[in-house]
């Protein structure tokens, strides 16, 4: 007899939500997390001024219903991000010119959203190859490629176009995704969900092997073996594929896991004595055309004045491994160029380099880089019951976001519950 109903591996938002949904449904669950904390790509740090800030996932908007509901359940109040004033464009252009380019890039994005990812004409294309086929001015094409680098954190020469189109079609917000954040931090919310799980959560528990040789599942955590009727691997695909399985996973699933590549991102908090850019009628946002993959915004609240700088894609990969001092000087130079000399004198600069993170991949989400793997998401969502795969990447809405992780957790919990009720066999058993 297995020791429990379900083991869930990975206490990011996907695993936390799956575990709490299944526990609420009355199942005996155990959530195993490799790190000494929960949250995965959602984590926090305390700055020198005592402020707790999100060093991973942070922002959200009202168009993300499952996250909004969770925030309400835990009775916390979102802070609206500061949005009054102009955005700075670098190299400098007038706000009108900058907005005009932004609208043209957005129109190209709309063109991508209108494509059918199943169209055979689009099969095997990279994002860069699709853009090269579009009849748009060079600055619009460059702007679109820059957006992809910054948001999907990998070179458009590598990302599958049909993946990007299908992924973006599920990101449906009309309000800015940076509309708000939590004063207590998003990581605090993860900790609250974890606290409700109580003894059902085990930290410092790294699963490295899955034995699926019998009807039950056994996982190995160091030398300990733990068994359950069902197993949910709530891990990004590039992390899941590091586990060993006996017997090996069916070949189509191995191919589906191999289709993904991790992105590269670095998140920086720069703290100041006051939000001085506001006095210049600026909203704190900076859009850099060069270098590509850079974006800054205002993340001040209460007494805390600060900017967040995101570095994504090849630029982050380039800075990974170079010295912190060099990176600090680079960022402060860019901010001083955008906002004036005061920006060069922060109280503190905090850098979280996610590139090559061993437990979560290197950026906001993994992306599909195998141009022939159009069915990778479907295959992983079907899983090999009693082994199920889940992560924000596989979500039906907002993949790659915290909202996506919550939806992915709900999706997989629903699948496990219905399979338990119906006693469904694996699709690989003929
Ligand atoms: C810098 C950064 C900024 C971001 N900003 C935003 C934002 O502002 N808004 C937004 O909506 N999203 C943002 N995201 C994306 C968002 O945080 C993620 O999409 C989401 O949190 C992913 O959740 P997940 O549970 O699917 O995966 P993860 O959070 O990666 O969770 C996987 C968990 O599995 C654990 N694990 C891995 N291997 C093992 C193992 N072998 N055994 C046991 N446990 C294991 C990991 O430690 C981790 O806790 C950001 C991400 C990053 C990195």
What does this structure look like?
It is a single chain. The chain has 430 residues and is α/β, with parallel strands linked by helices. The chain has 3 domains: 4-40 and 186-261 and 362-429, 3-Layer(bba) Sandwich (FAD/NAD(P)-binding domain); 44-83 and 176-183 and 262-353, Polyamine Oxidase, Chain A, domain 2 (Alpha-Beta Complex), CATH 3.90.660.10; 95-169, Orthogonal Bundle (Guanine Nucleotide Dissociation Inhibitor, domain 1), CATH 1.10.405. Helix content is 34%, strand content 22%. The chain is built from 13 helices and 20 strands. The chain has helices at 13-24, 65-73, 95-113, 127-133, 138-152, 161-169, 186-197, 237-240, 251-258, 314-319, 324-339, 376-382, 402-422; strands at 4-9, 29-32, 44-46, 52-54, 78-80, 86-90, 180-182, 201-202, 207-211, 217-221, 224-233, 244-246, 260-261, 265-272, 282-288, 294-298, 305-312, 348-353, 367-368, 387-389. The strands form 5 sheets. Strands 1, 2, 8, 9, 10, 11, 12 and 20 form an 8-stranded mixed sheet that branches. A 6-stranded mixed sheet has the order 6-15-16-17-14-18. Strand 15 and strand 16 (294-298) form a beta hairpin. Helix 1 (13-24) runs parallel beside helix 7. The longest helix has 21 residues, at 402-422. The radius of gyration is 22 Å and the shape is globular. The two termini are 25 Å apart. Mean pLDDT is 95; it is low at 426-430. The protein binds flavin-adenine dinucleotide. Flavin-adenine dinucleotide binds at residues 9-15, 32-35, 40-42, 56-60, 206-207, 234-236, 239, 265, 267, 354, 359-360, 363-365, 391-392, 400-405.
């Amino acid at each position: 007899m297995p020791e429990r109903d379900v083991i869930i591996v990975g206490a990011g938002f996907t695993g936390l939500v799956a575990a709490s949904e299944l526990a609420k449904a009355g199942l005996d669950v155990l959530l195993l997390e490799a790190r000494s904390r929960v949250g995965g790509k959602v984590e926090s740090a305390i700055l020198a001024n005592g402020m707790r800030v999100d060093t991973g996932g942070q922002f959200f908007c009202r168009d993300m219903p499952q996250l909004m509901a969770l925030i309400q359940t835990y009775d916390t109040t979102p802070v609206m991000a500061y949005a009054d004033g102009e955005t700075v464009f670098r190299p400098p252009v007038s706000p009108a010119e900058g907005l005009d380019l932004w609208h043209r890039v957005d129109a190209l994005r709309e063109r991508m959203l209108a494509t059918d990812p199943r169209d055979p004409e689009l099969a095997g294309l990279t994002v860069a190859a699709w853009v090269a086929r579009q009849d748009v001015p060079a600055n619009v094409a460059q702007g679109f490629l820059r957006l992809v680098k910054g948001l999907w954190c990998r070179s458009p020469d590598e990302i599958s176009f049909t993946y990007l189109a299908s992924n973006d079609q599920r990101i449906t917000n009309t309000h800015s995704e940076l509309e708000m954040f939590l004063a207590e931090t998003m990581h605090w919310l993860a900790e609250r969900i974890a606290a409700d799980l109580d003894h059902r959560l085990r930290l410092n528990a790294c699963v490295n092997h899955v034995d699926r040789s019998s009807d039950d599942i056994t996982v190995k955590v160091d030398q300990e073996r733990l068994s359950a009727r069902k197993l949910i691997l709530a891990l990004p695909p590039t992390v899941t594929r590091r586990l060993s399985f006996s017997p090996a996973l069916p070949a189509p699933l191995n191919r589906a896991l191999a289709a993904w590549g991790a992105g590269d991102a670095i998140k920086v908090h720069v703290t100041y004595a006051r939000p001085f850019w506001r006095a210049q009628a600026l909203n704190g946002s900076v859009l850099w055309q060069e270098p590509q993959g850079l974006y800054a915004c205002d993340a001040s609240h209460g007494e805390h004045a600060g900017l967040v700088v995101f570095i994504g894609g090849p630029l982050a990969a380039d800075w990974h491994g170079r010295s912190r001092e060099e990176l600090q000087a680079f960022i402060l130079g860019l901010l001083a160029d955008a906002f004036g000399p005061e920006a060069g004198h922060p109280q503190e600069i905090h850098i979280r380099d996610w590139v090559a993170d061993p437990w979560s991949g290197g950026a906001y989400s993994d992306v599909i880089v195998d141009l022939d793997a159009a069915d990778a998401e479907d295959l992983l969502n079907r899983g090999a019951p009693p082994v199920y795969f889940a992560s924000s990447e596989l979500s039906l809405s907002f993949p790659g976001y915290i909202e996506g992780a919550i939806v992915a957790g709900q999706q997989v919990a629903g699948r496990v519950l219905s399979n338990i009720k119906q006693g469904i066999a694996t699709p690989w058993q003929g």
